């Protein structure tokens, strides 16, 4: 049975000072099996912390790859890099979306603490409050029951960076701006204006609900393409996908544009612009990967995220 040397790509972590090690493998051994063997020797070096690559190469080897296809039948040397403490993507999403679900009720129901006075909430504020809570509650449910992640974990340190976007921009900044006295029922900014018109508010509600339900539909479509516990990718078709590769991002941004337009809030506009800009970057990357992976099979003429624009 051939053997394989596993060395450390850098200074080994304290719990893996025994590197390098030699492992045996056969025709059925995968990269994931090698990671499991390393973890068996160094229990704190669990598979999600490991990045395996060929010696002196940076590219990461996919867990599903057969080892014989990577190093051949005579054996070779792989390097393992410690990726640091990991946290599941599901946990990251739950923490990200949980922030606004806690922050908005605090500022909405306890205005005296934040503004030094009570606020008689306008219909506009009530609508936006419900929108925000429903949106992030929907995202939490999707995280638990709908999303299937290509990668199981991410570095723990990234949870703070990722959460800041939601906790600060759509949490503190948006809530503090929207629920302040300027938008209250007695404010001249609201009374006698279109923002106090129920027909206008219900039209906005319809547009916002359309965006949310369409976003959910595309998430369900993407879920159906990937069997559980797999990284299988397929070309998405159907509602939302005829013109763009990432309609989930498009509908997500549309929902925030509606809130921004109906309120005139600077904080809402900033979040809409920042989040849309980030989603455009993600969409361009996914669009490029789709075309690279599926080649001529991928429908021509699709845009990345915004129909006829980008």
From TrEMBL:
Q: Which cellular component terms (GO) are annotated to the entry?
A: endoplasmic reticulum; membrane
Q: How does it sit in the membrane?
A: Multi-pass membrane protein
MF terms from GO for this chain are: oxidoreductase activity, acting on the CH-CH group of donors
Q: Name one Pfam family in it.
A: Steroid_dh
Mind giving the lineage of the organism this protein is from?
Answer: Eukaryota, Fungi, Dikarya, Basidiomycota, Agaricomycotina
Q: Which residues cross the membrane?
A: 257-284
Recorded protein name is Steroid 5-alpha reductase C-terminal domain-containing protein
Entry similarity comment: Belongs to the steroid 5-alpha reductase family.
Listed A to Z, the keywords are: Endoplasmic reticulum, Lipid biosynthesis, Lipid metabolism, Membrane, Oxidoreductase, Transmembrane, Transmembrane helix
The answer, when asked if DNA-binding is one of the entry's keywords, is no
Q: Tell me the InterPro entries matching this sequence.
A: 3-oxo-5_a-steroid_4-DH_C, SRD5A/TECR, TECR-like_N
Q: Where is the 3-oxo-5-alpha-steroid 4-dehydrogenase C-terminal domain?
A: 153-309
Q: Which Gene3D superfamilies match?
A: 1.20.120.1630, Phosphatidylinositol 3-kinase Catalytic Subunit, Chain A, domain 1
Q: Which organism is it from?
A: Asterophora parasitica
């Amino acid at each position: 049975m051939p053997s394989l040397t596993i060395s450390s790509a850098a200074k080994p972590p304290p719990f893996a000072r025994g590197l390098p090690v030699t492992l045996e493998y056969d025709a059925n051994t995968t990269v994931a099996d090698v990671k499991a063997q390393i973890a068996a020797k160094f229990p704190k070096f669990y598979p999600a912390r490991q990045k395996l690559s060929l010696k002196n190469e940076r590219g990461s080897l996919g867990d599903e790859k057969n080892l014989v296809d990577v190093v051949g039948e005579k054996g070779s040397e792989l390097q393992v890099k410690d990726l640091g403490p990991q946290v599941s993507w599901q946990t990251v999403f739950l923490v990200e979306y949980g922030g606004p679900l806690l922050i908005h009720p605090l500022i909405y129901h306890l205005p005296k603490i934040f503004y030094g006075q009570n606020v008689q909430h306008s219909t506009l504020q009530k609508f936006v409050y419900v929108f925000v809570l429903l949106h992030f509650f929907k995202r939490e449910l999707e995280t638990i029951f709908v999303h299937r992640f290509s990668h199981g974990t991410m570095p723990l340190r990234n949870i703070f960076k990722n959460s800041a976007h939601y906790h600060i921009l759509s949490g503190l900044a948006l809530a503090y701006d929207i629920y302040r006295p300027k938008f209250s029922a007695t404010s001249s900014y609201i009374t006698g204006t279109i923002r106090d018109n129920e027909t206008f508010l219900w039209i906005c509600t319809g547009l916002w609900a359309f965006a949310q339900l369409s976003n959910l539909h595309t998430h369900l479509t993407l879920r159906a393409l990937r069997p559980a516990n797999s990284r299988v990718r397929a070309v998405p078709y159907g509602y939302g996908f005829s013109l763009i590769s990432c309609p989930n991002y498009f509908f997500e941004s549309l929902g925030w544009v509606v809130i921004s337009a109906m309120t005139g809030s600077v904080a809402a506009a900033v979040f809409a612009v920042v989040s849309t800009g980030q989603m455009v970057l993600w969409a361009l990357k996914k669009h490029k990967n789709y075309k690279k992976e599926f080649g001529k099979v991928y429908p021509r003429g699709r845009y990345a995220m915004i129909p006829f624009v980008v």
